[in-house]
Amino acid sequence: MADPGYPQAITDPQWDYLDLGLRSPDGTLIDRRPIGTTLSDEIEFSFGVDPGAFSIQLPPKHPLLDEVTDIRRKAWHIFAAYDGVEYTGRILKRRASGPNEQGDLWSGLDYRHHLSRSSAWVNNTAPPEVQFNITGKQDVVWGPVDPVFKNYVSKVFTRLNKPLYVRLPLRWPTAWTNANQTNVNAINELDDLLDIIWGASQDLIALPARFTQLDDLFRPTCERLEMGVTVDLWDGRGDKPFVFSTDTVGKLQSILDHTSDHFLDLSQLGSVSSGLFSFEPNRACYVFDTQEKFPNQKVQFHTNAQAGIDSWVMEETHADATRAVVGGKAPEVLNQLIEIGANLAISAIIFAISLIPGAGAIAGLSLTVGDLFDDVFFAYQVFADHDLEDDIGDDDAFGEIFADNTAAYSLDGYATGKRALHEHGGTRTLEVQVSTGGPKGMGIHFGQDETGVRGARKYQPGDIVTLWDRGTSTEQYVSKVTLSRNRDNGWAEKANIGKSKQSQGLWERIITGVQDGAASIRGLSNSV
Fold first, then answer.
1. Where is each Gp28/Gp37-like domain found (predicted)?
2. What residues pair up with 407 in beta bridges, in sequence order?
3. Do 196 and 186 contact (CB within 8 A), yes or no?
4. How far apart are the first and last CA of the chain?
């Protein structure tokens, strides 16, 4: 019998399934078959924007060696699951070697790779030769994170006419719900008020896009808010996902797209009979969604083998800068004030000279400085972490870095400078080799229960877990989990637990929260 509070031992870990898929000739389904015996396989389940990788090594004489021979022109899909957590990806590389007969090595990425192969145009309904929008030379979308991200994804993949849809319903910030409103009477100090402001505004963003790859567009927000995105492949079987399908709009748009196979194909007009949009897919498709961190502090990693860790590596880096310089451009209002002041001074001098007897002829003279003094005064700003500098010592602390050429003495400049100090102020990361069970079944491990929830000893990427080491406990989130197995070493489970990049001070959190909006304004001004 297992010890109280611990699950049964995982004596023989294995995938729930590990399948290979290829889209059916009519395009409605993904035909799947088990891969079978492998020499080794490894899959990364990650949290964030960047896709998780996989590799599968087949043994010699495997029946799939003769079938999977043209990955350049065929989309071979990988379906895997472990303890209820699913993974879908694409084979992007196949390596075969000789002269001795050896098995092939497949490698690839999960379907977040779609985001790095799609761009947010200024206007997704117009041809590339004519790109302008009501918001100017960039497509600017403002609002909560989930609707904003899905707005871009829907527009881009409708233009591309590909079956990648956004999951519904849209998620709105929990701070906006009545159940989570803070009682105003409970505000006792400034920090209470700042917490309310932060809770209501942290998920509000404004993103500018001008042929920006979607992963690059989303990444700064995901890093700031410590959130992730997912893109999963539905094989066309079972319950249909609840999505916003724009197939009909995509077909209509393809009529005017000279790069499309359906350019000027008026038969596409017949698709209108099924409606302009629907809430379920009509064929196998990809589903995009946003992902928030999950509070799972009941899962505790202890630095002793009896509590679920075989080994661990903690890496700490030294602070390589204690000052950050931002600037290159002064706030526009200051440039205007300096220009007005200089022009007034010149006018006053000319007027004074004109009062001198015999110099009245210059009274009508008009001179202006124009933009001569633009970006000369208050164009740069220095931010310093004096506490860090004192801890290291003034004599030994490294100096400064140039953070960005954003406007100095602005909200955007403040957030950029503070973030640079945070990123260069030293880091701490943890890599944990997790016990996948043991003689007494005391190991915590990656997965979920049959009901779709985490058990008392299970975790996933994006979970906030507790790390206990030498009497000190901290809460950090799991950024990646790598599952691997091979004939020599058996099954291995490795979890990467990353340090928070989120600004800690309330003032910094609020100022950073409006950085995206300030960046949008800067981007618009630079595009004019």
1. 49-498
2. 329
3. no
4. 71
Read off the pLDDT of residues 270-306 as tens digits, 9 standing for 90 and up: 555 555 667 788 899 999 999 999 988 888 877 665 5
What confidence score (pLDDT) does residue 174 get? 65
Residues 6+ apart with CB under 8 A from 327: 379, 380, 381, 405, 406, 407, 408, 413
Q: Which of 139-143, 342-346, 520-524 has the highest mean pLDDT?
A: 139-143
pLDDT in tens, 344-397: 776 676 666 666 666 555 555 555 555 555 555 667 788 888 888 888 888 887
Q: Model confidence over 402-452: pLDDT tens digits?
A: 876 666 666 567 767 777 887 788 876 667 776 554 433 456 788 887 666
Computed over every residue of the chain, the mean pLDDT equals 75
Q: Angle CA(117)–CA(94)–CA(40) in degrees, nearest 5?
A: 110
For residue 331, what is the DSSP state?
-
Classify burial at 436, counting beta carbons within 10 Å of its beta carbon; exposed 0-12, middle 13-18, buried 19 or more: buried
Instruction: Count CB atoms within 10 A of the CB of residue 147.
Output: 16
CA distances from 385 to 275, 328, 502 (A): 58, 21, 17
Burial class of residue 421, CB neighbours in 10 A (0-12, 13-18, 19+):
buried
Residue 173's CB: how many other CB atoms inside 10 A?
16
Q: Is the dihedral of CA 183, 184, 188, 191 positive or negative?
A: positive
